[in-house]
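Appendix B. Chain record.
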Amino acid sequence: MALSATDAADRVEQLVILTERLTALIADQAACFEQRRPQDAAAMLDEVSRLANLYRHESARVRADTSMVSSAPLAARERLIRATEGFDAVLARQGRAIEAARTVTEGLVRCIADEVAAQRTRSSSYGAGGVVSPGAEATAITLNKRA
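Structure tokens predicted for this chain:
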């Protein structure tokens, strides 16, 4: 999918609209993470993915051929620059929110794993010479580092 612009001014305008829409969606997602409601952010995932892919594609096209936007009016190009700067700021905010959520989640999983291990009854068995030896400390918890 690509933008279908008639000229440089139209392309810049479409890029501004795309960037502002993507910025708004990502800001909403960041707010969901900050409010500890990641399930609400997941509801926007399809639209964010679609727009992010279009943004990536169009950014690569413009980077490869700057003449696609260079003849647009200066005011329009400056508006695109401001929209892009806002987008970068929102991406940084979302990154911090996601990292904080990941850290909290990992901490909770570790606390639960430690508590489960502490609550397990320790088994013991008789070893050589009739001496009681402690059983192995096995736990059945798996941590997924990619999540």
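Further analysis of this model is presented in Appendix C.
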